[in-house]
């Protein structure tokens, strides 16, 4: 006879939902506690509302996209990886598609449809969900999980607790760092938390000039590293090639052609053909060139200066946006204290961690969600079978 265990999962994001589903599939009695009135608020925002749920690249390529601790996930990925996740959704009526850079999205292009599948699966596996849950503290006796207290001192007895409360970015979605506090109180080390957002490892990408500085996919790609450097008080600057498709020589020839075809045109109007309109004035200010000057008055030296600046537009980086606005959190519960084969705490028996709250983070491209789903799956299965 198998003894049914009572498993509490804290946090109804991708990691917590998958943990609860897996433990439910293995016929355990599962309670999912979510502080919001609904599940998966961050999941709904993911991939600009389209949910880039995983990446179809190979395991080795996948692991390489994590900033430092990717190897920790090898066991979780062996258990439940990208193809398993795609099958999970397809078998439940949600086809997926692979887009550029192997990013996987639901064919529906709606993150809500991903959430719907997860919600249905929770119900199917008889997971009890308590919304607006207010957890006071976890009860641990002799280094073993016993249960937890909700506000109002209601006690829920549990054999296993899985903490999947997310990171501390986009707090509006419910990720306010509560899990880190629970973990710290229980004697777990939590490594320094920082905003992290590395994306495609590519030198060509989309970049946005905004009122606060630069942003966009390319910036997100590099910001994880940059934040580390800034934290080490290193000076960091971005050198942007505004015309990556043209060599310096080609660019110089193009300017020469335009200058001789329209010698009385001012430089501002010529540059409008090369740069986004609103960048032209800023560019000329930095280049220290009068925007109204006619191109036939521009010296060879000044023209070469323009070419140099187009190929290497330099911006000093003063800082990153606060953690609040980052996509993923760098740092988290120290990996030394979690067993990678089970996600169980090495300090407290019956306590498990999953998702963004553990100290792993990756480029965007579907890697973070897969890590959340995989660690959730492994934690749910280990909690059920251990
Ligand atoms: C704007 C944005 C877009 C993104 N797009 C992508 C993408 O396309 N692809 C990708 O791979 N990654 C993406 N990410 C990252 C990805 O969303 C996260 O890595 C992922 O959601 C982490 O899952 P999680 O379950 O660990 O945590 P979360 O999704 O943060 O879920 C944690 C849950 O725990 C709940 N909770 C917190 N504290 C408590 C408590 N005390 N009691 C009860 N419940 C609690 C929260 O309310 C929340 O529901 C994006 C992130 C952002 C912010």
Folded structure, characterized:
This protein has 386 residues and is of the alpha/beta class. It folds into 3 domains: 6-193 and 326-385, FAD/NAD(P)-binding domain (3-Layer(bba) Sandwich); 198-241, no CATH class; 248-311, Helicase, Ruva Protein, domain 3 (Orthogonal Bundle). Helix content is 35%, strand content 17%. The chain has 13 helices and 17 strands. The strands form 6 sheets. The protein has a 5-stranded parallel β-sheet with strand order 6-2-1-10-17, with helices on one face. Strand 8 (144-150) and strand 9 (155-157) form a beta hairpin. Helix 1 (14-25) runs parallel beside helix 6 (111-124), helix 1 (14-25) runs parallel beside helix 13 and helix 9 (248-261) crosses helix 12 (300-311). The longest helix is centred in the last third of the chain and has 19 residues, at 367-385. It is elongated, with a radius of gyration of 25 Å.
Feature tags:
single chain; 386 residues; alpha/beta; FAD/NAD(P)-binding domain; Helicase, Ruva Protein, domain 3; 3 domains; five-stranded parallel sheet; three-stranded antiparallel sheet; 13 helices; 35% helix; 17% strand; binds flavin-adenine dinucleotide
């Amino acid at each position: 006879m198998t003894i049914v265990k009572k498993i509490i999962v804290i946090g109804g994001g991708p990691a917590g939902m998958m943990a609860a589903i897996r433990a439910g599939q293995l016929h355990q009695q599962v309670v999912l506690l979510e502080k919001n009135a609904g599940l998966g608020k961050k999941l709904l925002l993911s991939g600009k509302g389209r949910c880039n749920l995983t990446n179809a690249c190979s395991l080795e390529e996948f692991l390489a996209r994590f900033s430092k601790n990717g190897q920790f996930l090898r066991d979780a990925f062996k258990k439940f990886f990208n193809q398993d996740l795609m099958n999970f959704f397809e078998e439940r009526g949600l086809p997926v598609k692979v887009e550029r850079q192997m990013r996987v999205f639901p064919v529906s292009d709606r993150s809500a449809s991903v959430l719907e599948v997860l919600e249905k699966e929770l119900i199917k596996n008889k997971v009890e969900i308590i919304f607006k849950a207010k957890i006071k503290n976890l009860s641990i006796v002799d280094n073993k999980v016993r249960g937890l207290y909700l506000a109002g001192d209601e006690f829920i007895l549990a054999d296993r607790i899985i903490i999947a409360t997310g990171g501390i970015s986009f707090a509006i979605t419910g990720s306010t760092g509560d899990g880190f506090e629970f973990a710290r109180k229980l004697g777990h080390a939590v490594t320094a938390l920082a905003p992290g957002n590395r994306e495609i490892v590519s030198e060509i990408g989309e970049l946005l000039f905004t009122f606060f500085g630069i942003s966009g996919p390319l910036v997100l790609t590099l910001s994880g590293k940059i934040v580390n450097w800034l934290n080490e008080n290193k000076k960091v600057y971005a050198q942007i090639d505004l015309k990556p498709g043209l060599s310096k020589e080609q660019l110089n020839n193009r300017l020469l052609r335009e200058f001789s075809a329209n010698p009385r045109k001012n430089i501002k109007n010529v540059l409008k053909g090369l740069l986004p309109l609103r960048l032209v004035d800023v560019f000329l200010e930095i280049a220290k060139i009068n925007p109204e000057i006619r191109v036939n008055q521009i010296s060879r030296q000044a023209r070469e200066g323009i070419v140099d600046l187009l190929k290497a537009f330099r911006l000093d980086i003063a800082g990153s946006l606060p953690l609040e606005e980052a996509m993923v959190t760098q740092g988290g519960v120290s990996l030394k204290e979690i067993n990678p084969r089970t996600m169980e705490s090495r300090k407290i028996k019956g306590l498990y961690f999953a998702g963004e709250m553990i100290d792993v983070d990756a480029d965007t491209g579907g890697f973070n969600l897969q890590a959340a789903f995989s660690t959730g799956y492994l934690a749910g299965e280990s909690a059920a079978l251990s």
